Amino acid sequence: MSNWVRAHTNIALIKYWGKENENVIIPMNNSLSLTLDAFYTETNVTFNENLTTDELYLDNQIQDFDSLLKVKTVLDLVRKKAGIKTKARVDSFNYVPTAAGLASSASGLAALAGSASLAAGLNLSQKELSTLARRGSGSACRSIYGGFAEWQKGHSHETSFAVPVDEANWDIGMLFIIVNDKQKDVSSRDGMSRTVKTSPFYQGWLDSLGQDLSAMKEAIAKQDSHKVGEIAERNALKMHATTLGATPPFTYWSPESMRAMDAVRKLRKQGYSAHFTMDAGPNVKIICKQSELEEIKAHLLNDFTESQLISAKPGPGLQKIEKP
Ligand code: DP6
């Protein structure tokens, strides 16, 4: 019997950036995201008595030990809960440009949490699934839900999980400008850790988050996509400012990211409601009205190629799927 599960990626509008506890992944702050339809991962876990180690196949290629670490964390938790010791084979297909800051770990670890728990015969609640996915990768805890979700930081393994905020059945969308789909130099895990430990700007970031989060929730409740974009852009710029103060300093921006940000500002001058956000990579994500996605894309084709531009709408939460 197969246990295929699909999870969609999410993009944070209020960013998670820094951990209070690095071992069990308790964040410094609450974050809020939008799950999208365009990027997802499909995963099937099989526990097999004949295996002597866990195996991960990504797009049919067996992966080395390093990329297994996050996967093992989730599998070990599932084994403990189910009272089994059996090793697992994980088959995963990524419909996400891997590790380009497009949050592939979010959809990947969420799908893994869903499939591994099914394979072990556990019947977990969404809250438990979110908690489990979090241990693989923090942002994954938000991909359990469709639409907007808030990761409530909590203070322990059991109390740190995401909750649904709004289904996003209204006029909001995202357009990705892919400026580089290669592996990033500084992973989000290392980047946030270095920033928390060394950046004098980090406290300033933390101090302004409460205000950003409550303004964001108000904008979502009013279905005001313009305000949502405005707050998200401000929040992302503050997060990225913290990395410049770190020792050694670093940035996820490339010259191409700056060109993309300029293109978004130009769109605003032309009267579009368009703002951007960025994660731990050089790609730029535009937050806009869903009804204006195609028009905005057409404008951007002056500066970028068709294959660099990917439109996305709000997507669903974790799904069990049938796959041949
Ligand atoms: C910039 O969830 O990848 O995308 O918990 O260490 O696995 P770990 O980090 P990860 O960090 C995501 C950081 C971010 C912002 C966000 O998604 O909130």
Automatic annotation (TrEMBL):
Residues 175-308 form the Mvd1 C-terminal domain. It is an enzyme of class 4 (lyase). GO terms for cellular component: cytosol. It comes from Alkalibacterium gilvum. This is diphosphomevalonate decarboxylase. GO terms for molecular function: ATP binding; diphosphomevalonate decarboxylase activity. Keywords: ATP-binding, Lipid biosynthesis, Lipid metabolism, Lyase, Nucleotide-binding. Its EC number is 4.1.1.33. NCBIfam families: mevDPdecarb. Belongs to the diphosphomevalonate decarboxylase family. SUPFAM superfamilies: GHMP Kinase, C-terminal domain, Ribosomal protein S5 domain 2-like. Residues 7-162 form the Diphosphomevalonate decarboxylase-like N-terminal domain. The lineage of its organism: Bacteria, Bacillati, Bacillota, Bacilli, Lactobacillales. Transmembrane segments: none annotated. GO terms for biological process: isopentenyl diphosphate biosynthetic process, mevalonate pathway. The keyword Nucleotide-binding applies. The keyword Lyase applies.
